[in-house]
Specification:
Elements (H helix, E strand, L loop, with lengths): L20 E7 L2 H10 L7 E7 L18 E7 L11 H12 L5 E3 L3 E4 L2 E13 L2 E10 L26 H22 L5 H7 L6 E6 L2 E10 L5 E5 L6 E3 L4 E3 L1
The chain binds biotin.
The site of biotin has 20 residues, from helix 1, strand 3, strand 6 and strand 7.
Length: 254
């Protein structure tokens, strides 16, 4: 197993992201360790990585299967100085930042799945804890890099850079992604989601297509027309009617 991620600090070309770094051979969840570290004073931009996670978490309480050595499992500690009212769209800005740094053309599936060839290359889990007027935020992401074999339930829906013919060291992937992610998040925190929206829409393969959204109120079918300035998905219901705002969804299929 390569230990390349341990040397992240000498690869990053960022202002803050990854300049302070902690690597684990195995950890429960890099998000949990980053949150704990923030409580102990980790600075803005500190990064936790691991070769394996024993309790990797996905969105909506799902498990993120995290076998050793092949992939990037990383969490960044963010301490934004001020937050705007659209801060809830941070996951979409993270998706753009990561996609821009990957060595392959990546599409986005709302809200923040990283898709190549119709399959999931990576996922994002942002978690915040409010500290008075501002949040401590952990931006976690997993990117499948070298993995070539997936469990039966993932074979048809997951992919990796290696399976897409891209052979690259994990540390190169992560160092480049941290650069583009830092840039997008600085823009997002300063100017809001509206400043990232066009870049998101340009990569969002769902736009203009019929999608089925499993939302808290039930299932909605319609054409995904675009995104609102706060990151909500704008859906024209099948059969017509007023544009619907989808703010949270269990699942979206195209
Ligand atoms: C998803 O698509 O459901 C989100 C997956 C997020 C996985 C990453 S791996 C690093 C970080 N630590 C975790 O426990 N989860 C995120």
């Amino acid at each position: 197993m390569s230990d390349d991620l341990r040397r992240l600090r000498s690869f990053v070309r960022t202002r803050a992201f990854g300049r302070v770094h902690e690597h684990h051979a195995a950890v429960g969840s890099t998000n949990d360790r980053a949150a704990q570290w923030m409580g102990e004073g980790a600075p803005h931009g500190a990064v936790v990585t691991a070769d394996a996670q024993t309790a990797g978490r996905g969105r909506r309480g799902r498990t993120w299967v995290s076998p050793p050595g092949d992939n990037v499992y990383a969490s960044v500690a963010l301490r934004p100085e001020a937050v705007r009212s659209d801060f809830g769209a941070i996951g979409l800005a993270v998706a753009v930042g990561i996609a821009e740094g990957l060595p392959i053309e990546v599409e986005l599936k709302w809200p923040n799945d990283l898709i190549v060839g119709g399959r999931k290359l990576g996922g994002i889990l942002c978690e915040s804890r409010w500290m008075g007027a501002r949040p401590d935020v952990v931006v976690g992401f997993g990117i499948n890099v070298h993995q070539r074999e997936f469990a039966e339930e993932l074979v048809a829906i997951a992919t990796s850079l290696a399976l897409q013919g891209v052979v690259v060291a994990r540390v190169d992937v992560l160092a480049t992604v941290l650069g583009t992610l830092e840039e997008q998040l600085e823009r997002f925190v300063r100017d809001g989601f509206a400043s990232v929206r066009a870049a998101y829409e340009a990569r969002c393969a769902m736009l203009g297509r019929m999608v089925v959204v499993t939302a808290p109120g039930g299932e909605v079918r319609g054409i995904a027309e675009g995104l609102a300035d706060d990151g909500a998905l704008l859906l024209r219901p099948d059969g017509g009617g007023a544009l619907r705002r989808i703010e949270a969804a269990e699942d979206v299929t195209a």
